[in-house]
Amino acid sequence: MRTEDVLAAIATGLWRWDNASGTVTLDSEAARLLGLPAEPAQLPEVAVRSRFHPVDWNEINGIVNLAVAEGTLAEARLRIMDEDGRVLRTVRSRSKPLENRSADGRVDYELIGTIQEIAEAQPGTTAVHTPITGDWRRSREAFLLDAGRALAEARSTAEVLRVAASLSMPGFIPDGLAVFGVSGDRLSIIGHHGHDPGDEGPFADMPLQTDYPAAEVVRTGRAIYLPSPEDYKRRFPATWPLAQRFGRISWAFLPLIVAGRTMGAWMAAFKHPVSFSPDERSVLTTVARMLAQALQRAGVAESERELTTGLQRSMMPQLGPEIPGMTLAARYVPTGGGLQVGGDWYDMIPLPSGRFALVIGDVQGHDVRAAGLMGQLRIAVRAYASEGHRPDAVLSRASRFLAGLCSEQDTAADPGKGGGMGGGGMGGPDSDFQSPRFATCLYVECDPATGLLEVARAGHPDPAVRMADGTVLMRPTAGGLPLGIVPDTDYPTTRFTLEPGETMMLCTDGLIETGGHDLDTGWARLRAILESQTPYAAEDADPEPRHLERLADLLVQAVHGPSSHHTTGPLADRREDDIAVVLLCREGEGCGCETPLLHPSRPARRTMTTVAQAEPERVAGVRQQIRELLHDWADPEQLDAAVLMVSEMVTNVLVHTDGDALLIAEAVGELGARRLRVEVADASDELPHKRHPGEMASSGRGVLLLEMLADDWGVDPRGEGKSTWFVLNERSKPDSDPLE
């Protein structure tokens, strides 16, 4: 019996598809299966193409390309159509693609194979998706979409491997997975699933020349499919004993290729037989490509995280040794732009005098250059401070250093300034990187024995002080321009004392403005956190010295935690910024850093401010400071009276003397029965006296106001100058103590 008769008896035809000539050669059985007269024929490609369902035809090219890449058979299920668009039958095509390269380098393919009718044919029905080509394809597409999304969201190699292990492929689910990596000429296992610990031992360090499927896949870049143990044993007899003990039936080894480079191999093993049809191979190949890209992204991200974390740790030192009588806490949170370092920094510097300095600063920008400048500037500030310079001298030298550093970089970026071709000119790729930068900074020198603080400020937010009873004040300090703008800049020094039980907060503007807030609304948000965490009540205090650490966490959570999404500020589109915050607590009653007293007394509130002759605009800040000091005063009218008298007394000093005004305010006692004493000292010996101004007079009412509004007042002569003071006694008791 002839071969043609045997094939016809089992409804199998032969065909030859020549892509170069665009012709298809059919025997009589193949022609019959395609709905043509049952006789041998050679037809143009378009005549045969019209017999296939358009959806099935669109998949043929992908199947052929996959078979060429893997060196396997091209197998497809195809629906045959009649002239009316109805499905006549469903056939399976199996063919071997042969590559033909012409003299001009063009690559064409010739397919030689069989076409056979299968049982799923539904004669007489309209051309709709059958379960073979419809439901399975929809399930496959949904799976690939889910797999692609999950792999794209994985941020580390471990997450990628977990996602790969959880993939549930449509129709066939691997029982075991392994990802192999390449290092030099060695093959190793990156991760695996479905195996016991220790099973990876023989595969952990394998030469690439080993007769093992994964090694061959890496060497050749082509997938290997082993549908049965017999296939595995026949092709890889040397390593078959290693695979035999796992009890698997089918294996697929696919290359992990990124940008044309094979970076490893992926193994999917099955405990049930898998024939690895073209659809199944297509799914596995697509997953391997996505897995390779995900592993590449994860590897790059992990390298960047390791680099930036190490850089951050080297640039953001831990706070120094413990300071007797004081507690420190600090936090640094980089922006969400990908880098783990930025332009913000903090530092604690032991000084030759036995004191220590706290420094916090912010270099303009959020990029790598900002981080580099930050590191150089931090080292410079530490060097100047360690030499024993005063706070104003430290910032003056740092400003000169930063201005010179940026000037040198700008000159190096544009040699044209010295005659030559410039690479950092306007619009060039490095113009932003080489542009001048400035930095804000706050430098505080602290005497731990007395709590005396000397503050120099360069364009940075003022420090805030939380008093022992929870009252929070923004402490106004004199300041100058940010560092690096004008090389020779003076930075005046402000002195005040951190009393026992008080906590000072230094922060960068990122803590205030993150979340769309401006300076006012952001400060109100932080103040609420600082005031709500006072440990004044002994029964609520933490007996362990962790209060300051908890407070630092709460400040950061208020900005980056879940609650921050519900407290968006008025500038919702403001770019996020790095955050640095330092807390310094002078231990004492009610601070929360030591064991609380069983029956604590309410601590006094004190504030001190100097208003210079050249700074009359600071009178408004003094009024605001008095309002913050008396934020819970029972009688609002008394509060307004106190603000009015303070404003009058400070203004009189600026108008009628040649010196500065020193304001000291203190409130003592229990809520509802407190006593406020305010004094304003100046260097003039001239005593105030009562006047009788007319209706239209713009001055002369200071003494009259004191007599009318104060419970007591007076003037005390001093060695140099005088001190004018008044006293207010709180008149009514509030409903409840907010600290209880």
Secondary structure elements and their pairing?
Elements: H1 3-9, E1 12-18, E2 23-26, H2 28-33, E3 41-44, H3 45-49, H4 54-70, E4 74-81, E5 86-101, E6 107-117, E7 125-126, H5 135-153, H6 157-166, E8 176-183, E9 186-193, E10 206-207, H7 213-220, E11 224-226, H8 229-235, H9 240-244, E12 250-258, E13 261-270, H10 278-315, E14 326-333, E15 344-350, E16 356-363, H11 368-386, H12 391-413, E17 439-446, E18 452-458, E19 464-466, E20 472-474, E21 479-480, E22 493-497, E23 503-507, H13 509-513, H14 519-532, H15 547-560, E24 579-586, E25 605-611, H16 619-629, H17 636-656, E26 661-668, E27 675-682, H18 702-709, E28 712-717, E29 722-729
Parallel strand pairs: 18-21
Antiparallel strand pairs: 1-2, 1-6, 2-3, 4-5, 5-6, 5-7, 8-9, 8-13, 9-10, 11-12, 12-13, 14-24, 15-16, 16-17, 17-18, 18-22, 19-20, 19-23, 23-24, 25-26, 26-27, 27-29, 28-29
Helix pairs in contact: 5-10, 11-12, 14-15, 16-17, 17-18
Helix content: 25-40%
Report the β-strand fraction as a percent range. Answer: 25-35%
N- to C-terminal distance: 105 Å
Supply the number of helical segments: 18
Which sheet architecture does the biggest sheet show? 7 strands, antiparallel
Which whole number gives the mean pLDDT? Answer: 80
- The whole-angstrom Rg is 40 Å
Give the structural class: alpha+beta
Q: Give the low-pLDDT segments.
A: 121-134, 417-429, 535-545, 595-599
Approximate shape:
elongated
Strand tally, please? 29
